[in-house]
Write a structure and sequence with these properties.
Keywords: Hydrolase, Signal. By secondary structure, the chain is mainly alpha-helical. Helices cover 45% and strands 9% of the residues. The protein has one domain. A three-stranded antiparallel beta sheet has the order 1-3-2, covered by helices on one side. Strand 2 and strand 3 form a beta hairpin.
């Protein structure tokens, strides 16, 4: 059962991925636990992401968690755009998708406790996995964000970094505004 698999993953009962990080006490990091939860959920649903090689699957799962938490109730294009922003950052910074997603203070949902982050809407989780897989597993997806490495919901926030003069390109897709900044070093 899915709830049992998720409970085991959250409590450390699932096998932690070999490349996952651990805290000082040797416990799996929050990122590692969430990837285990995501994998358990995908396996339970028999999602095609489980057929990918382990390294690629891990990157898809991290991106899917980002899509799920940032754009779960939004349009297909908005969800794909969140995955593309994750991809654009990973490529620009020459880092993994997972390190981009779990970098401190980059995506607000990552600050919550693991129990709050567990995907509860099966249909939305399946869509997030599909959108993430379409971007991460594709060597050259069409970038509908025009190279954006940041996004925000203008109805919720007005970030300092998105002020006029700091944005090179911007595009509204679904609920979010996708932007590429003149100087993207602000978040380092």
């Amino acid at each position: 059962m899915l709830s049992r698999a998720i409970s085991l993953a959250c409590l450390g009962g699932a096998v932690v991925l070999a490349s996952a990080s651990a805290d000082a006490a040797g416990r799996p990091s929050k990122a590692a636990r969430m990837i285990d939860v995501a994998a358990a959920h995908a396996a339970e649903a028999n999602h095609p992401v489980m057929d990918l090689p382990p390294g690629l699957r891990r990157q898809v799962l991290c991106t899917a968690l980002n899509v799920y938490h940032e754009a779960r109730g939004s349009t297909r294009h908005d969800q794909i755009s969140v995955a593309l922003v994750t991809r654009n950052r990973a490529l620009h910074e020459q880092r993994s998708y997972c390190s981009v997603v779990w970098e401190r203070a980059q995506f607000s949902w990552t600050r919550y406790k693991v129990q709050r982050l567990i995907p509860r809407d099966d249909a939305a989780w399946d869509r997030a996995l599909t959108r993430a897989m379409a971007v991460v597993a594709n060597p050259s997806p069409t970038d509908i964000t025009r190279g954006a490495r940041h996004f925000y919901n203008p109805r919720s926030v007005r970030p300092r970094w998105a002020r006029p003069g700091k944005v090179v390109t911007a595009r509204r897709i679904g609920q979010h505004r996708y932007v590429r900044l003149r100087d993207a070093r602000w978040y380092k």
